[in-house]
Here is the input.
Amino acid sequence: MSVAGPRGRRRRAVPEDEHVNHERWLVSYSDMITVLMALFIVLFAISQVDQEKYIALSKSLAAGFGDVRPDVSAAVLDGAPGVLEGLAPQHSDPDAGTAGLVDADSGLGEQGTTPAPQASVDPALLAAAQAEAAHLGRIRDAIRAGLADHGLDGVVTFRIDERGLVLGLVADDVFFAPASAVLTDTARQVLDVAGPTLVGLAEQIAVEGHANVLPVSGRYPTNWELSADRATQVLRHLVERDGLPPGRVSAVGYGDARPVAGGLDDASLALNRRVDLVVLSEAPESVRRLVPTVVTP
Here is the structure.
């Protein structure tokens, strides 16, 4: 309403200040969040790789660089099918004796089963496994022939598994007397026959000592010390008498933890009182996994 001034004039009404909107920034903020969300959706969409094309590309690159393990690159993508898909897995314990291993004379796979079909295996991988199995077989045949020439055929067992060639010094009291790590004359002769072949190899040699479950007394507190001493005596003979380079050989004792035969009869106790010489294969793991399926007697 108007108010009359001193001279009778009406005073104009003063307009009120316009209300300022302090929430206009929310509009710009929401626009920015929407744009960022759209950006991340686009980035996520273009980051999805065609797995089949990626695997084909990786195999092609691997073959171009001479890599014989095409399954390695294929395994980069989670869920990608490998070249060994459909092949029965070999779950053998590498140090668990004959259980789950492949005997060189049997031609059978894990626990006596027939080897898995090789049709689904990559041809390059299969060829590499066959070459490695043939190499280990030549080492086995050379040592076996030398033992036969000295009348020692049958006193050493041979098998080829995922680790390589295993020579088992297992034969009642032929190599070690009960609770003793002293090499017998026969044991020394066997090592001297096998020594030249082992010296000429490039592979590492593992000497693994074992004992049966009978308690020991006297010099050895437990079977751990006994098995380790047996492995050490074999190692020392190979190095000191047969000239095996010390950098290529190692010794370990497993006590009675890894028997190859159960029971407490004389035959089982004798089988578990042993030392294994393992020629460790230098092939890639993907190749070594296939070796037991292509072994020939």
The radius of gyration is 37 Å. The longest helix spans residues 123-149.
